[in-house]
Amino acid sequence: MLQSLAGSSCVRLVERHRSAWCFGFLVLGYLLYLVFGAVVFSSVELPYEDLLRQELRKLKRRFLEEHESLSEQQLEQFLGRVLEASNYGVSVLSNASGNWNWDFTSALFFASTVLSTTGYGHTVPLSDGGKAFCIIYSVIGIPFTLLFLTAVVQRITVHVTRRPVLYFHIRWGFSKQVVAIVHAVLLGFVTVSCFFFIPAAVFSVLEDDWNFLESFYFCFISLSTIGLGDYVPGEGYNQKFRELYKIGITCYLLLGLIAMLVVLETFCELHELKKFRKMFYVKKDKDEDQVHIIEHDQLSFSSITDQAAGMKEDQKQNEPFVAAQSSACVDGPVNH
Amino acid sequence: MPGAWLCSCWGGRVLPLLLAYVCYLLLGATIFQLLEKQAEAQSRNEFQLEKLRFLENYTCLDQWALEQFVQVIMEAWVKGVNPKGNSTNPSNWDFGSSFFFAGTVVTTIGYGNLAPSTEAGQVFCVFYALLGIPLNVIFLNNLGTGLRAHLATIERWEDQPRRSQLLRVLGLALFLTLGTLVILIFPPMVFSHVEGWSFGEGFYFAFITLSTIGFGDYVVGTDPSKHYISVYRSLAAIWILLGLAWLALILPLGPLLLHRCCQLWLLSRGLGVKDGAAPDSSGLPRPQKIPISS
């Protein structure tokens, strides 16, 4: 009897602190994931870097040998200045003097990368005033961007996800969850091809030395807002229609971000994912009268409001049939 | 989504919002252009002068050879290889630096001073980020969950006396200020001392990092001429994670606090709004009452 008591108290302990256990596993998983990434990146990139360093050493030695009047220290000083300048996007090479980093369209592109928090770093504010303005601009602009994106994404999700899913569910009679999953997968497919594959193909054509993989890599790194900055379009020498190109890229980045968020929102609304996420959340103790009798996610509001709107119209047309119809409509989503 | 309830307040009018956003972008572009174009032109002229002076001093050099050399150096630089000094500098892809890089990918900061240059590295980076970014979002959201649950009692404050409301608001403000000091003021001081930056540059670095913009013009622990203690980068990584978690905590709290402050102010003026009309915290409007039977 003691054993069963102890067993049950253990179980109760685990159950009560289930979300704490889940959170602990989450932290562990996160750290392990970082370590895993570090190991793989290190093993893939280190040999290549080693090779590059050796090549560079040989080149520097050869250059110093060829031009004996140059001392190593002076060369290093010069190189230091050159690299400092290139850090700020200013190139010393004579053939790259055509492109300005801060004409209007490039500044627009820069502003959009700041607000979307991508931040390539190919152009950075050089002056102190620019840096200070950048901070103030972001402090106001990033919440503004969040608000803007939330508003747009919610609107689009209603039209792109909720209405079609509801349509297929009601008219064709499939189960709501199946329709939702199929729709989410389809939407993901369409978005990936429209916002990754097609732009990657376009970039690989427009940019001289990008192949398809590099363009795809650029699209992914930009739309996930990581923005490493190793590939930035429109910086090539003698780029034709540079201004238009930069504006086009700005629009692509904003639209792509909106599309990614719509897909994310669609996936997050899936029932299975909601259950998965709830595993990690702390349970709030609600007072009895505060718990809604029907949970929000079992009862989709747009369907109710849509049907309410629909019912008003029906009411005007055929009065005797309203009672049966309205009760059936309300019962339908509740049962799922 | 943090701004969801704000949206319902706004009435869902997207078009003016879109217009305002585009105007904000254009405004930013104009001001950046005004501030920076001159500085850029100045930098260019300076460096061209230096180059000419350098070539004058060493007449055995011809411009073409120098440019070729510089081109190769810059390409190597972009890949993160520093040609200064002898090449016994610590590698950019040893375990600690790769760990730091993995962290910047997963948090979407993405400095870019270091980037995978092999094809295999780039492909792996894509898949790694695909799994890592959602993991990061879940992780950061849950790091502050306990604290937010406690702070969320601010929602049910209508039932409580006015003084306790004021105390709660003050307590919250104190918490926010303390957090700002610990996350945004002290670490930049440390960084500027260790890296040799001014405090303004350190603060700029801290801001750009924590907002996940991550230009990469300032990165801690990358100066080859300095000796860092071995845990320096790990400490910086911990600071970044804590800072991001704290931001994830306060970002939804900020508008909520503002909203409550407005309500408090309105109430004190006797122009209070019945709270039944306001949206509840989950961001969805309360269920509309629908007659079941006619």
Automatic annotation (TrEMBL), chain A:
Keywords: Cell membrane, Cell projection, Cytoplasmic vesicle, Disulfide bond, Endosome, Glycoprotein, Ion channel, Ion transport, Isopeptide bond, Membrane, Potassium, Potassium channel, Potassium transport, Synapse, Transmembrane, Transmembrane helix, Transport, Ubl conjugation
GO cellular component entries: apical plasma membrane; dendrite; perikaryon; recycling endosome; synaptic membrane
Predominant cellular place of this UniProt entry's protein: membrane
Keyword Cell membrane: yes
Membrane topology type: Multi-pass membrane protein
Example of a GO MF term: potassium ion leak channel activity
InterPro entries documented for this protein: 2pore_dom_K_chnl (IPR003280), 2pore_dom_K_chnl_TASK (IPR003092), 2pore_dom_K_chnl_TWIK (IPR005408), 2pore_dom_K_chnl_TWIK1 (IPR001779), K_chnl_dom (IPR013099)
GO biological process: stabilization of membrane potential
Subcellular localization: Apical cell membrane; Cell projection, Dendrite; Cytoplasmic vesicle; Perikaryon
Pfam families linked: Ion_trans_2
Domain Potassium channel: 95-157, 192-268
Transmembrane region(s): 21-44, 135-157, 178-203, 215-232, 244-264
Reactions the enzyme catalyzes: K(+)(in) = K(+)(out); Na(+)(in) = Na(+)(out); chloride(in) = chloride(out); L-glutamate(out) = L-glutamate(in)
Carbohydrate attachment residues: 95
Quaternary context: Homodimer; disulfide-linked. Heterodimer with KCNK2; disulfide-linked. In astrocytes, forms mostly heterodimeric potassium channels with KCNK2, with only a minor proportion of functional channels containing homodimeric KCNK1. Interacts with KCNK3 and KCNK9, forming functional heterodimeric channels. Interacts with GNG4. Identified in a complex with PSD and ARF6; interacts only with PSD that is bound to ARF6. Interacts with UBE2I.
Membership in a protein family: Belongs to the two pore domain potassium channel (TC 1.A.1.8) family.
Protein name: Potassium channel subfamily K member
UniProt organism field: Callithrix jacchus (White-tufted-ear marmoset)
Automatic annotation (TrEMBL), chain B:
GO cellular component assignments: endoplasmic reticulum membrane; mitochondrial inner membrane; plasma membrane
Reactions mediated catalytically: Cs(+)(in) = Cs(+)(out); Rb(+)(in) = Rb(+)(out); K(+)(in) = K(+)(out)
Signal peptide range in chain numbering: none
GO BP annotation list: endoplasmic reticulum calcium ion homeostasis; regulation of release of sequestered calcium ion into cytosol; stabilization of membrane potential
Localization in the cell: Cell membrane; Endoplasmic reticulum membrane; Mitochondrion inner membrane
Primary location recorded for the protein, binned into one broad class: membrane
Pfam families membership: Ion_trans_2
Keyword Mitochondrion: yes
GO molecular function: metal ion binding; outward rectifier potassium channel activity; potassium ion leak channel activity
Keyword annotations from UniProtKB, A to Z: Cell membrane, Disulfide bond, Endoplasmic reticulum, Ion channel, Ion transport, Membrane, Metal-binding, Mitochondrion, Mitochondrion inner membrane, Potassium, Potassium channel, Potassium transport, Transmembrane, Transmembrane helix, Transport
Membrane topology recorded in Swiss-Prot or TrEMBL: Multi-pass membrane protein
InterPro entries: 2pore_dom_K_chnl, 2pore_dom_K_chnl_TASK, K_chnl_dom
Gene3D superfamilies reported for this sequence: 1.10.287.70
Chain positions carrying an annotated carbohydrate: 86
Transmembrane segments: 14-35, 93-114, 120-140, 166-190, 202-220, 232-258
SUPFAM superfamilies in the cross-refs: Voltage-gated potassium channels
Start and end residues of each Potassium channel domain: 87-145, 181-251
Similarity-based family: Belongs to the two pore domain potassium channel (TC 1.A.1.8) family.
Quaternary structure annotation from Swiss-Prot or TrEMBL: Homodimer; disulfide-linked. Heterodimer with KCNK17 and KCNK5.
Protein name per the record: 2P domain potassium channel Talk-1
Protein species of origin: Callithrix jacchus
UniProt lineage: Eukaryota, Metazoa, Chordata, Craniata, Vertebrata
